[in-house]
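Review form for a predicted model. The reviewer records the input and the model, then writes brief findings.
Reviewer: anonymous (R2)
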Amino acid sequence: MKKLNISFDRIMSIIALTAGVVALLFSFQANQLAKEANQIALQQAMARVVVLNASDGGSGSDNYITCRHDIRVTNLGGAATALVGFDGTITFKYKKLIAESSGEHFAFNRSRIIPDVGDFYITLMAPSSPGEVLKLEEIAGKNEQPLPLSIDSFATVDFGTKFRYVIDRSEYEIDSGYRLDSQNVLRKFPLPGYTPIEVEYTLHMASGQSVTTPKLSCYYIKQ
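Model under review:
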């Protein structure tokens, strides 16, 4: 009878221990779910900007190359924010320069990325209308977009940039990269031996967040 009682006590102890472990696991899982729910709620109450789209185009005039880049961002968060500054990382092959706006609606870097190609200048622009083709003088001097640029919660905002640089046309051949395809649609078909000048925009938000666009080209150069 004593042995039976000992065995019964052990069984009850094992059951109690198992129940405690299960309760602990459920408690841990509940805490994790609560933390995840709190994180989701916190994210929804904060600004969270992402780049939806970025596209490029351009036009040239003498030794100045000017391109229009269109950018679309959306705020997935529940709090409004604003674009308060931007940087442009400019590349040509393995060469790189950075133009910083320092909170202004323009950025520049007067250096040369290769000999006789440089003096980069970037200005934020108001969004273009659907299908709009801007003339060079419109790209070069009108519709500048001041900062800060407000981005409401759950809102999508369009804006553009004017990207300009100087090139010695007597030293280099240039090409836009665009051709009409068999369907008479303008598409990008860079010529062999030509390398693009590219810029990648890093957008700085009032919330402290920064987002980066894909690289956008502004003409192709043959050395």
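Findings: Helices lie at 2-44, 136-141.
Further findings: The chain has a mean pLDDT of 80.
Recommendation: see findings above.
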